[in-house]
Amino acid sequence: MSKAPDKLEPSILKRGAGVSYVYESLRNEIIELKLAPGTPIDEVQLAERFALSRTPIREALVRLAAEGLITTLTNRATIVSQIDFLNLPDFFDALTLMYRVTTRLAAANHRPEDIPAIRALQDEFVAAVEAKNVMALILTNRDFHLAIARAGGNQYYIDLFTRLLDEGRRILRLYYSSFNDNLPRQYVNEHEDMIAAIIARDVTRADELARAHADQIVRQIQSYISADNRQNAQMGL
Do domains 10-80 and 85-234 have the same CATH topology? Predict the structure, then answer.
């Protein structure tokens, strides 16, 4: 596992931050693929690493399991969840549909007060791109698209999109890796174009932009995975 962090200060623990600290540390390592799929998760080792009792460790692991980031096997061993590459085509189909329908609805139904929240998250996304902060990129991208979904006003779509974006965080990590974590400005501008279409209430344009945005992400990820598979085959892995 990764190098142990400094011990938490007792004052921090008194404020109940131990669980959140462990959860966020492990969540980030899993999403950034520093903890690879299939990596064993051991409560005793984690308690030693974070200098905490096993109770907050267990609570953090429960949160990670609820997000599908860790899995308990039939033999009761816990591992980092595998990425379901076999069903990626179905995942991509569902994700693309949600990009389109939520952006369309935002163009049709948004209220004036929805726009500042969307713009603020885009500003955070741009800052993350400029800083090459991958974890911030993944989280702010998620929040940006969910803000658009909320502007559309359909709670069922919001819930489904949340699930898909959360499940896809490690896949999105591969997307940014394909650019060596230096996302080209043209893809940042896709968000700007979507905001403009939403403000203009141009439903057709919003749909076109959302579909193109999703399509380029899917193509980039598929190309990256294919290249990685070819490299592994050449190396006999």
Answer: no
- CATH assignment of 10-80, given 1.10.10.10, 1.25.40.10, 3.40.190.10, 1.10.580.10? 1.10.10.10
pLDDT tens-digit map of 197-226: 999 999 999 999 999 999 999 999 999 988
What CATH code would you report for 85-234? 1.20.120.530
**Tokens read off for 206:** 């919003």
Q: What is the pTM of this model?
A: 0.84
Closest CA to 225 of 32, 89, 47: 89
**Tens digit of pLDDT for each residue in 71-123?**
998 888 899 999 989 999 999 999 999 999 999 999 999 999 999 999 999 99
Angle among Cα 144, 35, 128 to the nearest 5 degrees reads: 30
